[in-house]
Structures are given as C-alpha cells and as structure tokens.
Known about the structure:
The protein is mostly helical. It is built from 18 helices and 2 strands. α1 runs antiparallel to α2 (35-49).
Amino acid sequence: MRRFFIFVITSAVTIQLTFGQAVDLLKAALNKAKGQHRYELLLDLFEIHYESNPDSAEYFANQTLELASIEGDSLMISRALTAKGFLHRLEGNHDSTLICYQHALDIASRNNFREREKFILNQMGSYYGELADYGKSLKFKMSFLRMNKEDKDSIQLASAYNNVGLIYYRTGNYLRAIEFINNALDLKRRFNSNLISTYINLGLCYTALEDYQEAINYYDNVSKLCNEDCDTENLIALYHGYGLAYENSDFEKSKNYFELALKLSRANHMKLRLVVGLYNLSRLTIHENSLEKALKLALECLQIASKYQYQRWLKGSYKVLSEVYSRSRQFELAYDYQRKYDSLNEIITGSEVRSKMSILEQEVQESEM
C-alpha cells in the first residue's frame, strides 16, 4: 500500500509527498533542529515508520528518550515511553508494553502533566481491554472518565462514556452498557460530534439483547453517515455489526458482511479486526458444514490471537476448534480445545473477575451520585 503525507507550508499551501520524500524532508530538518523542534521531528519520524519499519520507529523513539533524559525533560520522556509502549503493543510484546506505559503514567502523574496522564490512562484501559482483562480495563477507563468530569472536557468525556459502555458490553452487562453509551450520545449531540462509533456500539448492545431491528436501525444510521465521513476502522466495524445483526434472519447477508469486514481488515493489516473477522466467519462456516474451511479460518485466528494475546478471540477460536473437531469425530482434539476454552473463559469471566467488576461497579455508582 503506497502512503502519502500532507505537509502544510503556509495556511494556503500544502504539498503531498510519498513516504520516501517525507522521510528525507524530516531527516534534513532534523540535522539542524534543536530543543522542542527536534523532539517533534523525532516523534514525527517514529509515527511514519511504526507500521512499515518497526525497527526504525523504535530507533527514533529511543533517540527521543535519550535526548529528553539528557535534558531532563520529563514530559518528553513520558511521550517517548508512550510511543515505545504503543510500538511494543503492535508487536504483541505484552510485558514491555505495560512497563513503558506504567513508567510514562508515573512520570505524567508525578509531574501533574494532566493531559498526558489522561491520554495514557485511556491507552492502558484500551490495551487491557484487548487482553480481555476487563477489571483493569474498567479501572483505567473510569479514572479517565473521572478526570474528564473534573476538567469539564465534554469531548473526551463522551469518549470515556462510550469506552466504559463497551467494557460493560464485553462483560455481558448490556443494559448498563447502553446507559453509558447513551450518555456519550447525548454529549456528542450537544457539540455536533461524529456519532458513528457510538451508534455502532449501541447496535452491538441491541444485537446482544436480540433486538435485531433496533440494531439494524443504528447501523443504517451509520451507513448514511459513512457516505459523508467514515474511516476504514469504522467501516469494518459497521460490516461486522451488520453481520451479527443479520445472522439469525439472513445467513447469506450475514456471511457477505463478515467477508467484507475480513477483506478490509486483511488489506489494511488491522490485526485485531482481522481476528474478529476470522472468528465470525469460522463460526458461520461450521453451519455450512464446510469443516475444512472453518478449520483453516479458526487456526489462523488462533495463531494471531495467541501472538498478540487477544484473549477474547483466543477463547473464541478454542470454541470453534472444539466444535470443528467434534463434528469431524476427532474427539480427543475436541476435548482438548474445550478444556482450553473452559480454562480461559474462567480467567476472563469467572467468579474472581465478576467480584472485581462488582466492586468497580459500586465505585462507578458512588461516583455518579
């Protein structure tokens, strides 16, 4: 995929550069830059390399960290550590991600860099959500929510409500999820913000509640908005949502939507979206009795989910593989994957997790009084 970068020369003039031209321009400027300008250029170089060349991206993040450490710039140290954490997150390096994020958060909190602290809290909440550690995810997301309430930052508060609602959705508390997501919707409508992700999340909740028509209504609203402004990630989420909503009434339509989501995810190298698509198509393919195809999809899902510790989808792949092997009369393998599913399901949604969520839920309710 060929990428282009837009550089603003003046308020009226912009130029479009290829990846190579952008790198050359930034490196030329870096040779003469000092102080804050040098920091920003190093982070710009990190941002344009992290997808295509992780080694170069880490080099520029380390350069930023080294420079900031020499000059004692705590804010820039925190930013560089966050960048390194984000890169390790993309690489599936769980321990390094959390070490970098936590160190960055400690520095931001200790120095009262409030906006940076909020940013990292949000990132850590999202990462724990990817790992299906919903207790910790909720803890960080609620801290992000509370800080934005204190700051009266309506834009970020809407994002916080939306994200907390998504955690409740993932833990099966759909009515509570709808409450939070509707809070986000109310705020977004007040300042005329983009409603796409909020509608998508409401669609997911109503699908889970088996109110399929209400879910489809929300997705139809998203489809209209996507005609004007819709990025690739939201478009994939829309196809995924439609696929779920039509699954019980129109099998072929559901399958077509899941295939569209999978195709876009693969083309754009979006690993988390890819495993979601692989899981859903593998489920549907079983019902067509195409066991060989279902097995191939589920094994690919398993491989990616294992590498990047996407626990929710790893659990799903275990369940699909258990069913595939059972239908293939390979009962020993079926039993093995069922045991793996049961074990991981207990870790993700077992009694200890439910207890932690209950305590956090009580804290949430008290904070809203």
